[in-house]
Every structure is written in C-alpha cells, then in structure tokens.
Amino acid sequence: MALLLLRHAFTVPEADGDDDVSTFFSLFLLRAAAFLLPCYIMAWAISVLQRRRQQEAAALAATQVAFVLQSGQHRGLQFTIASGPAVSPHQETV
C-alpha cells in the first residue's frame, strides 16, 4: 500500500521547466491526502459495522438469558450463577 501511495504521489507532470519545490511538495500532499482519505473512511466504516455487530450480539445474548430466567421463574425453578472452575497451573510430577 505504501508503494502504491508513493507511485501515485510522485507522478508529477512535467512543467515548463520551472520546477519549484513548493509546487512539488503541495502536489505530493494533495495526492497523498486524496489517496489516504478514502482509506481512512473505509477503515472507519468497517470499525463502525463491527462495533454494531458486537452490540447486537450482546443484546441478543442478554435477551436469551432473560428469557430463560423468566421462563424458569414461571415454573418455580431457581437459578444460581456459579463462578467458573478455578484454574491452577499444571505442575509436572517427577
């Protein structure tokens, strides 16, 4: 991607022979911005879509848990939340 940016940014058309450094620099910045701005917008849009998908999955899981708890209460079932098993590091026996 960096090579594509450099190739795109450094192709400056031949001028009248009066090569000014500020002209090259401003053209380089303009072309770099024209290349990087769409890349930034696409990355931002992808991150928004991923965040929305994660929020929807969390909401669905919460709804399912609430449904299970509510249906169990109508039947007189009691639910308790237990902590997970304690994980200890494996010790090698000699």
Shape: elongated
Strand content: under 5%
Number of helices: 2
Question: Gap between N and C termini, in Å?
Answer: 54 Å
Helical content (DSSP H or I, runs of 4+): 55-70%
Rg is 30 Å
Annotation, overall tally of beta strands = 0
Secondary-structure element order, N to C: HH
Signal peptide: 1-17
Transmembrane segments: 27-46
GO molecular function: ubiquitin-protein transferase activity
InterPro entries: DUF3675, MARCH-like
Description:
It is a single chain. With 94 residues, this protein is an all-alpha fold. The chain has a domain at 39-73. It is 67% helix and 0% strand. It contains two helices and no strands. α1 runs antiparallel to α2. It starts with a helix and ends in a 20-residue tail after the last helix. 0% of the residues are buried. The mean pLDDT is 76.
